[in-house]
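Quarterly update from the structural biology core.
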Amino acid sequence: MNHLRLVQDDGIWMPTSRQAKLYKLWDQLKAEEKTSDEVIKAVCRFKQTVYDAQVTMTVQANLALDLGDLEWGHIVATIALHRRGCWGDCDAHDRLRNDENPYLSVWQSKGKKYWIMKQELPSSPEGSSLVVMLPSDY
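Predicted structure, tokenized:
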């Protein structure tokens, strides 16, 4: 990684300066201070840290998108944030775990919570994919 990882001795997760900038973009997206397109454009300046071959959605997440409970641009922006090391509204335990092996980020769109989760694909040369899912899918 190109940035210094700051974790206090008591196990409390502390964002790196790079992550702090990404979390600021997430806060601005949540508060509707920035549009999805503005966040995507800003995020693209950061180096990608999570690599995956594909992104899929569960049936329930796709239905929520079709019903207008989730916003497509918001999902694309949060996938971009996830790929660069921003874990959204994850708790401190999951943030610490993600710094070692990224697997989960927690987001909200239009008040509806959704997750972006890493799925291992042992038979695939790429090794893993990302799945957009609702908590009820787990």
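Residues 6-137 form one domain.
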